[in-house]
Amino acid sequence: MNKNIYRSRKISNTVGLTLSMGAMLLGMTALIWILFILFSKGFAALSLDFFLNSTPAPGSVGGGLSNAIVGSLMMVGLCTFVSTPIGVLAGIFLAEYGDRSKIASITRFVNDIMLSAPSIVIGLFVYAIYVAQVKHFSGFAGTLALSLIAVPVVLKTTENMLRLVPSTLREAAYALGTPKWKVSFSIILRSAKSGVITGILLAIARVSGETAPLLFTALNNQFFSADMSKPMSNLPVVIYQFALSPYENWVNLAWGGALIITLTVLGLNVLARVFFREKS
Q1: pTM
Q2: How many CB atoms lie within 10 A of CB 45?
């Protein structure tokens, strides 16, 4: 009887491992195939003109995505500047001060809704409350939409990372007479800084490729512009529009833009992991 049970469990284990390995190989094959096509077509589109020239007119030859690259950097940079302090401070409040607070419960509930809300809904929301009121698209509207996407990610990650810090560290600081606000900022936040920065990077990675909210807020601009009060070009929208166009030059530029976003997100994550591994 025991031998039969052992044999049955061994067969079940073998089948489970085989199915798991098969699923992993299938996923890895699809990922490698996607990355191979992206890198091969993306690198073929990269050149000096790609980084120096603005988006070309329909049917023309040459051109680049300098206006889209600068526009994306400005909006994502301002979004990071806005969402990071809001998300981190709200995460500290929920983790350190919000155990029995009704405000904290409501904040967590709203944050969970924001995390699961489709980005296009956030884009429509910003369009209704801002773009429709000022009667024009703008980079500031795009930044607002991206910030509404990034803040919940930073907040949730910060709260979770702070809760992983041992309570004995807090008790030791309190025993020395350290005020709670100083414990939260100087000890607890510093202990969890690698996880918090990882959350910020995850937020940047998510908003870097968002297209739907920018279609309703920043829209696009064929020309180079650093004025965020006007429609502003950005990589996700340009990639979306160029990839659907019938012009081969635009499609090639779209592949190059997709490669730039992929390499940027990958580079940020790799540098952060290497840096904190060396520090630890």
Answers
A1: 0.88
A2: 20
Q: Is 146 exposed, middle or buried (0-12, 13-18, 19+ CB in 10 A)?
A: buried
The pLDDT tens digits for 74-123 are 999 999 999 999 999 999 999 988 877 888 889 999 999 999 899 999 99
169 vs 167: CA distance, rounded Å: 5
Copy the structure tokens of residue 45. Answer: 């589109």
pLDDT of 58-74, one tens digit each? Answer: 888 888 999 999 999 99
Q: What is the DSSP letter of 136?
A: S
The mean pLDDT of 21-35, rounded to a whole number, is 94
Q: Which of these, 263, 277, 274, 213, lies nearest to 38 by C-alpha position? A: 263
C-alpha span between 95 and 117 (Å, rounded): 23
pLDDT at position 176: 87
Which run of H or E residues covers position 78?
helix 66-92
Structure tokens at 260: 């730039």
pLDDT tops 60 at residue 255: yes
Question: 74-79 long-range CB contacts below 8 Å, 24 or more apart?
Answer: 74/139, 74/226, 74/228, 74/232, 75/139, 75/142, 75/143, 75/146, 75/214, 75/218, 75/228, 75/232, 75/234, 76/146, 76/204, 76/207, 76/208, 78/143, 78/228, 79/143, 79/146, 79/147, 79/150, 79/207
| From 63-72, 134-143, 191-200, the region with the lowest mean pLDDT | 191-200
Contact 146, 213 (CB under 8 A): yes
**Contact between 146 and 187 (Cβ < 8 Å):** no
d(CA 120, CA 6): 53
